[in-house]
Amino acid sequence: MLYRRIAFLVAFVVLLSMCIPAGERVLARDDLREYTLRDIEAFFAIQNSPRIQEIVIKAIQTNNPSLLPEARDTLESLAFKTLFVHREMEQYKDEKVLSFQVRQALREYATEKRNAQIMKECRVTTGDVELYYRENRKDYKTGERRKISVLYKVFPRDPDKREKTFQFLEKLRKKPDFKENFVEYVKKHSDLPGALMGGIVPYFSRGTYGPLLEKYSFRTPKGEISPVFSGIHGAYIVKCLDILPPGIRPLEEVSPLIRKSMFQKRLRQAGDELSNKLRESHKIHVSESASGASDQILLRVNDYQLRAGTLFTAIPELAERNIKIKPYLSRLAEGEAILQELKRRVNRYPDSPEAREMEILELVTALPLLFKRFSQKKIEVTEHQIREYYNQNRGYYHGNTPKRLACIKFLFPRDKGLSEPQYYKKIEWQYREAYDFLEKVNKKQDSFTDEAKKIAKDREDVSFEITGWLEELPGEWNSRKSIIEYTPGKISPVLNTPLGILIFQVKEKGKPRIFTYEEAREKIRGVLVRKQELALMDSLKKEILEQYRFKSLL
After folding, report:
1. Tens digit of pLDDT for each residue in 309-318?
2. How many CB atoms lie within 10 A of CB 286?
3. Structural domains of the chain sorted by starting position, each given as residue range(s) with its CATH number in brackets
4. What global pTM score does this model have?
């Protein structure tokens, strides 16, 4: 009889647990609270760790023994953050800077949520685009459009030598393959920027460019070449590559433009409406400037107040950069108003995902700030410890492996008397020669120095040098890569510098320079502090989980 009662009770408990929503199943508890799957989901939503989230949730849902340790670690981590912040905040209730920083994280969260909703509401559908196109077809009327390729030669500075430019172009024009291979001739001979891409001008209608180019572009039949004609600074030949007849631009051509324009217009309107609504529904005061007094109220949104001392202590760079404070405060006020609206909503629905995410966000933001202050009282790194660590590990603290580089630089023109076309002609040809040089030496890398010297020998606009030992690429080279990525013999791509076009090759590498104690001191101190912080965090986690009697139910 007793056995039957026990069996019935077990069956009843199992049946009852099946009726509890999966998200509300208690996974762990301590003296402060219980933790459910929804808490875990909120935790991962803030941490943005989708891979671990998938493993943990799968472990919880399937009770897979091989995955459960990851789930238990997550529950312990969440519980520790919750308990530590709770304990520390009880001791620091009046910490205004900490409160500001946590609230700022919540403001950013609320604003991001609101922006995501606005973006969703402003989404432009295919139907919206099609309707707009039908109602505004007349705006997309276009005349005949032409696609051309342009061969352009800049006149010499001496007016008496201009005739040679015409003679050169006429000679090219008479070549048997000139019309067929026009684009290749452009790449080889044209002085316009874009010549390396064939000098191709995409479809355009009348009135887009100057009357001279337009005249010959629209007179030349498809597939034919124009006569040589003269502009102010140079002479042209144009080939008509294709013709589109007049009419209405098709939907597929203008659809991206319509979609972008409609979305931006909706977004601006939604942003303006939101700002107006916030100003109307909240009592907002923003100070025009900061007087320097720490108790000055810079911002008030309903019952929330922000004083100058709190703001500049939390974000000292605001004062250091001497920026205009009002635009910053206006953005802050809008974020605060959005946060207050979100808080009212989650207060009505305390079990909503947003409510739980905000609670977790407060923990995640406050924990490192509170732990840093806590650890500063517990951790001490002496000068003796730093020096001892340096002596034991000094070989690890060294600069990048130094390298010597062979550099060729195609210099930009410095003659201020050049006309604009002549200036860009010189730059265009410098680029061509740089790319030709790079193509040549990439086929035979050991020829880099000889070929570079040969080009630079008799030219004032090309220089060559072998640098001293470098641990980093010079900042003025504008290279996003580190010298570490270049091994001996490797050749760089073409680099644009303020003075010219640069290509280099690594000639040899040396031995890394060991940092002095003074250079390595702060790095080593950081290492020793982090080691103690990790040890302190582990012992603190164990202590707090035991103190609040944390228990995992997995």
Report:
1. 899 888 888 8
2. 19
3. 20-91+516-554 (no CATH), 96-121+279-377 (no CATH), 144-245 (3.10.50.40), 403-509 (3.10.50)
4. 0.70
